[in-house]
């Protein structure tokens, strides 16, 4: 039976404070897809990701990762997920290499395989020279790369990237895009959240708009623009957040 | 090793790695503290006090100091480690792994347990060079020390999980644990206290732990050994059950 890489059904998340971050989200991501999740701050993107990765507990609804229920079958579901969170959450006590080694250990990978895999990823992400440095000594860009390498250590089938390019310089952003596309072409399903519409347009097969805890639009970039009756993804997004007046089509360009 | 064993071992390795990287603070400082106690209470005051219940004062004090070293180090290691990881967000790496609540609880507990064991063992070895420290009831001493160590490891985990700021951990250690240990009879025999303090001491659970350990070393106890051992086992089992339930619910760990 062919399962979705990620199947979310009527997901509701109400925090103890009473805030309802997700209000009945349903979503299907096909295996091999590069899927974008767009929405303003506080729309529920991170909550949806945290519920999928086991960091938040859904109030109701269902999440299945490659057919494995995220609650009842959490070990298999989490084994399939790699998460690169928005905030660099590195362990200060570990070196770069230990960060990768321990992560893979938490996912049950044997020592020899861990050593080979971390060597390979340190090279890929140009971190080999920093292997023995403590994580807190790294620059912002290196931390980003390490977080991505860590998420990939256990060879997840679904890689979740929560705003991977927020606050990074142009070179690193483009570098990360290349990595993401390459990983995706090698068969990994990717769920990407971003604030950069251009990034979503360039990378993603399909995009979902999330606002106020609900999916309000879903499709390819041209389909979304069509559904809002506008020319670009950006204008569709501005229509979604009720700020059409900001559209670049209104900007007068004088010679 | 099975994948579950690799997971558990790596989770524990992270905890041990942390305290070994700051061993001046986690092993050195408690060793120094214990020897300052031995110097002041044993050597300096001991010559004035002479004997308690026919035992040299310094020898009378050392079992309590060993127990205190194990318990405080187990507690403070686990409470600080968990709170630090929650602060950094680094704990998300373990929480989003397939590790079960039981694996997480055991690994976090064993971290402090090991640190306490190392400090207690070093204190024992060094004390044996300084004074003639007998081990009268090995079969009581070993389970008693292990249970005390495990009890305080679990208590440290509980406080670390509950804590929202470093003040919460400091409060538990300085205002609750330390007074209970000091007033539990590490440095004196409760039977010499005037009333009502003698009776009040019997309501302090740590009094029974100190007596058990002292009985293991010196063969002298003021409380029933069998009852103390039973109560300590029951308390440790109860605390373990509470923690396991909290971990399974994701209490203050998963949103």
SS element count, helices of chain B: 11
Number of strands of chain B: 2
The description of the largest β-sheet of chain A is:
6 strands, mixed
Largest interface chains and counts: A-B, 34 and 32 residues
Strand order of the largest sheet of chain B: 1-2
Rounded to an integer in angstroms, the radius of gyration calculated over CA atoms of chain B is 19 Å
Morphology call of chain B? globular
Mean pLDDT across all amino acids of chain B: 92
Distance between the termini of chain B: 32 Å
Number of helices in the DSSP assignment of chain A = 9
Helices and strands in order, then pairings?
The complex is a heterodimer of chains A (255) and B (255).
Chain A: E1 6-14, E2 20-29, E3 34-38, H1 45-53, E4 60-65, E5 68-69, H2 74-79, E6 81-84, H3 96-106, H4 111-124, H5 140-152, E7 158-162, H6 170-185, E8 189-194, H7 197-203, E9 206-211, E10 214-219, H8 221-227, H9 233-240
Chain B: H1 3-21, H2 23-44, H3 46-49, E1 51-52, E2 55-56, H4 57-88, H5 91-95, H6 101-130, H7 138-162, H8 166-182, H9 197-201, H10 205-218, H11 225-249
Antiparallel strand pairs in B: 1-2
Helix pairs in contact in B: 1-6, 2-4, 2-6, 4-6, 4-7, 4-8, 4-10, 6-7, 6-11, 7-10, 7-11, 10-11
Main features:
heterodimer; A: 255 residues; alpha/beta; six-stranded mixed beta sheet; four-stranded antiparallel beta sheet; 10 strands; 36% helix; B: 255 residues; mainly alpha; two-stranded antiparallel sheet; 11 helices
Molecular structure report:
By secondary structure, chain A is α/β, with parallel strands linked by helices. Chain A is 36% helix and 23% strand. In chain A, the strands form 2 sheets. Chain A has a 6-stranded mixed beta sheet, sandwiched between helices. A 4-stranded antiparallel beta sheet of chain A has the order 2-1-4-5. In chain A, helix 6 (170-185) links the parallel strand 7 (158-162) and strand 8. Chain A is globular, with a radius of gyration of 19 Å. Chain B has 255 residues and is an all-alpha fold. Chain B contains 11 helices and 2 strands, in the order αααββαααααααα. In chain B, strands 1-2 form a two-stranded antiparallel ribbon. The longest helix of chain B is centred in the N-terminal third of the chain and has 32 residues, at 57-88. The mean pLDDT of chain B is 92. The A-B interface holds A 15, 47, 50, 53-57, 74-76, 78-79, 81, 83, 85, 87, 89-94, 98, 102-103, 105-111, 150 and B 1-4, 6-7, 9-11, 13-14, 17-18, 21-22, 84-85, 88-90, 92-100, 250, 254-255.
């Amino acid at each position: 039976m062919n399962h979705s890489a990620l199947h979310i059904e009527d997901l509701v998340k109400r925090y103890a404070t009473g805030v309802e971050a997700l209000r009945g989200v349903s979503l299907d991501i096909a295996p091999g897809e590069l899927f974008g999740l767009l929405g303003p701050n506080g729309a529920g993107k991170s909550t949806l990701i945290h519920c999928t990765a086991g960091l938040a507990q859904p109030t109701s609804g269902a999440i299945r990762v490659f057919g494995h229920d995220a609650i009842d079958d959490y070990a298999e579901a989490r084994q399939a997920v790699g998460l690169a969170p928005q905030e660099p959450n590195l362990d200060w006590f570990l070196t770069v290499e230990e960060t990768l080694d321990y992560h893979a250990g938490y996912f049950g990978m044997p020592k020899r395989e861990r050593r080979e895999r971390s060597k390979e990823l340190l090279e890929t992400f140009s971190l080999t020279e920093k292997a023995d440095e403590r994580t807190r000594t790294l620059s912002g860009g290196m931390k980003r790369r390490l977080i991505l390498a860590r998420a990939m250590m256990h060879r997840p089938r679904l890689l979740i990237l929560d705003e991977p390019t927020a606050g990074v310089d142009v070179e690193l952003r483009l570098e990360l895009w290349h990595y993401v596309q390459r990983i995706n072409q090698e068969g990994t399903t990717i769920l990407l959240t971003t604030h950069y519409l251009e990034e979503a347009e360039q990378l993603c097969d399909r995009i979902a708009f999330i606002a106020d805890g609900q999916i309000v639009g879903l499709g390819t970039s041209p389909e979304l623009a069509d559904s809002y009756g506008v020319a670009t993804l950006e204008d569709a997004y501005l229509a979604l957040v009720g700020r059409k007046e900001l559209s670049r089509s209104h900007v007068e360009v004088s010679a | 090793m099975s994948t579950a064993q690799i997971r558990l071992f790596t989770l524990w390795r992270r905890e041990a790695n942390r305290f070994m990287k700051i061993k001046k603070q986690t092993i050195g400082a408690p060793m120094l503290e214990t020897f300052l106690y031995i110097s002041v209470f044993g050597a300096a005051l001991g010559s004035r006090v002479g004997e308690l219940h026919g035992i040299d004062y310094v020898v009378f004090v050392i079992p309590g100091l060993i127990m205190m070293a194990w318990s405080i180090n187990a507690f403070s290691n686990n409470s600080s480690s968990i709170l630090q990881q929650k602060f950094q967000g680094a704990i998300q790496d373990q929480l989003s792994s397939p590790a079960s609540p039981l694996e997480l609880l055991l690994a976090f507990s064993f971290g402090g347990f090991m640190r306490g064991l190392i400090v207690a063992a070093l204190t024992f070895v060094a004390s044996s060079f300084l004074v003639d420290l007998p081990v009268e009831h090995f079969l009581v001493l070993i389970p008693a020390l292990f249970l005390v160590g495990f009890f305080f490891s679990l208590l440290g985990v509980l406080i670390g999980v509950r804590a929202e700021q470093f003040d919460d951990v400091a409060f538990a250690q300085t205002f609750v644990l330390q007074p209970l240990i000091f007033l539990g009879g590490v440095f004196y025999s409760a039977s010499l206290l005037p009333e009502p303090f003698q009776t009040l001491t019997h309501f302090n659970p740590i009094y029974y732990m100190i007596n058990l350990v002292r009985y293991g070393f010196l063969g002298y106890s003021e409380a029933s050994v069998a009852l103390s051992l039973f109560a300590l086992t029951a308390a440790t089992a109860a605390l373990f059950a509470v923690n396991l339930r909290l971990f399974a619910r994701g209490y203050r760990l998963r949103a």
